[in-house]
Design brief:
Elements lengths: L2 E5 L9 H7 L4 E4 L14 H13 L4 E5 L11 H21 L3 E4 L9 H22 L6 E5 L12 H10 L6 E6 H6 L7 H14 L5 E5 L2 E2 L10 E2 L8 H8 L8 E4 L8 H12 L4
Parallel strand pairs: 1-2, 1-10, 2-3, 3-4, 4-5, 5-6, 6-7, 7-10
Antiparallel strand pairs: 8-9
Helix pairs in contact: 3-4, 4-5, 7-8
Length: about 290
Amino acid sequence: MPLFGAHISIAGGVDKAPERGRRATCDVIQIFTKSNVQWAAAQLDSKTCTRFAANLQSYGISLAFAHASYLINLCSSDSNVRRRSREALAIEMSRCAQLGLPYLVMHPGSCGTGSRQQALDHIIRGIKWAVDRSATAYPGRVPTLLLETTAARASEIGGCFAELGELLNGLKGWADTGICFDTCHVFAAGYDLRTAEAYSETMEQFDRAVGCHRIFVFHLNDSAGPLGARSDRHQHIGRGKIGLEGFRAVVNDTRFATCPMIIETPKGKTEALDKSNLRRLRSLIAA
């Protein structure tokens, strides 16, 4: 059975996340290592990192990984934003190294008034800079960087599979990289997932452009918007426009039997909604 989990809050400290993940019935968790809407971050102390590792074991969380700040935009048309973004990415990678997190998920970025080819070049250069900086500080501990598929909104990079393939090729031999496949984003970008046949065709397209072996993590989110709407609006599993049959195809694809599959569906005041979505996904696994 795949490893199912959710994005979990770090309110009160990252070491609190494993217990919240267990209450939500997670096998794996995704976290921010700092505020996702601020550039600054308090330094991690060794006691917090030790408690985090101990709590993962105590609460039976088999894997934890991080999502980078939403502020990071390596291909912004503003050079100051690009500079701050690469510095922030290096810090995020270093924090993952301190916490022992194997993956860091990031959005490729949005190019604004710049050209898309120029944007791809900026992203590749920015990642190389950040990897070099964090690897110098934490040799052998830098996380694998996972570029997330996007909904192809406006000047957003990564909604087209070919763009993701070009980015990974540009980083070959320089950084450990892969893909985080977000079902809502892919569907919003115009790739159908609603049936087993549609899912198979979409994954064939992905395999040709990028390679299915480059998928390390899934974000399993239904879509509030229709196919090709280019809107990043997540919905509960089976309650949106993708529907249960699409998710049945994903979770039973043997190529991804050991991939972490994380929900980023709407939250409530308790873990009840996460538990419900995870229970629905687990019910789709073939006997």
